[in-house]
Amino acid sequence: MKAIAHRTTGSAFTHRIDIRQHQLTIDEPAEHGGADEGPSPQELLAASVAACTAVTVEMYADRKGWDVGALEVECEYTPAERGGVTAFEVVLRLPADCPPERIERLQVIAAKCPVHRTLDGDVSFSQRVELVEPAPARDG
Question: Where are the alpha helices (DSSP H) in 9-130?
Fold first, then answer.
């Protein structure tokens, strides 16, 4: 899986993200010096947890033939202070008539979504620099 961030000519922090054939715009909110043209990278992390949890729960429920109604997953993310712990609070919103044993099983399954497992496991980063020639100026 790959995502590429391209700087745009707008705000200093606005970037276009290319993922397969899809494009997203990210930016920082105005209070952090951005133009608020899209969610921040931190907000996309919370969105990834919420979306992955929702898809994982729906896939499992579909296989079981369970109706989860208008499933909703909320994720609130609090970045760690230096030396602290990053906190994710995930809330599953299920139909009021969902049986307790089904709720319990869906909670277990929700915690097994791939993004949750990635963030909960060991993570490594590698980084390198590639120098590129600037694009030639285009005549107007």
Answer: 41-64, 100-110, 114-120
- Tokens for 33? 């010096």
d(CA 105, CA 68): 12
Q: How far apart are CA 72 and CA 139, in angstroms?
A: 50
Neighbours of 15 (CB within 10 A): 18
Q: How far apart are CA 113 and CA 90, in angstroms?
A: 12
Low-confidence residues of the chain: pLDDT under 50: none
Q: Would you say 14 and 35 are in contact if contact means Cβ atoms under 8 Å apart? A: yes
Residue-wise pLDDT for 61-79, tens only, equals: 999 999 999 999 999 998 8
In the numeric block, the tokens 């969610």 are attached to 39
